[in-house]
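Exam revision sheet. Question 4 asks you to relate a sequence to its structure. Input first:
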Amino acid sequence: MSSWAGGVRAELDTCGVARKLFSDHKTIYLVFTGHFSIDDAGYFENFDGVETVLNTLKAKGVKGSFFPTAITLAMPRYESSIKRIIAEGHYISGHSYGHLLLCDTQGKTLVTRDSVNVDLKLMEYQLERFGLKKEDYRKMIPPYETANKETAQWYMDKGYSLLSPTLGILTDQDWTQPGKPNYLSAQDILNLVWKYEREKGLDGVILLIHAMNYPWRTPDDRPYNHLGLIIDRLREMGYQFGCIKDVDL
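Answer key, structure tokens:
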């Protein structure tokens, strides 16, 4: 399923969530999410990679798109980074307020419509503290990057357009832990990106990297620390980088 808007064709999944964004050029959209785990003061989940990401984007002349949960926005330790995201012309929206798990792997809804609406109000409050208006942040990534038809419609009824990372690219597995069966190192993840590019191409891809410091990974094992290399190599392949700010969904 596809939808055209503002010169961009959005490839939608069965829930109406954009998974790829095509234009007249070979374009990739870099998106960065984060969440802050209050129960352990951000030990497990945090937004501590955001300054490194911003420094790299600035050095490379690339605009990114940021989707932290609004709990993250409420943390004083990130206030200057959020202001910097806005001042440097990147896109910022939410990823819910409290990182609600909307549905299970079989697609069964796990939340109520009222709980989603309350969560959205809390998210909107935090975004608007930074001077943003609804039209500035209405394009959002659902929590856990997933939704079913029912919950996706709830967001759309509130005026949101949804997007999520392109399926089959495993950059979002940067939370996996060494020694566990599902572990993918940063190098494994990069190799899988290049493999995907060889086999399918990356045109239109929404590429997610967590701007987070998971405690069991060393700095070199965090994919965001390889962002400069990713940008350079993709440019050599003829790709340019788009920003969700410039996409009319």
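Marking note for examiners. The radius of gyration is 17 Å.
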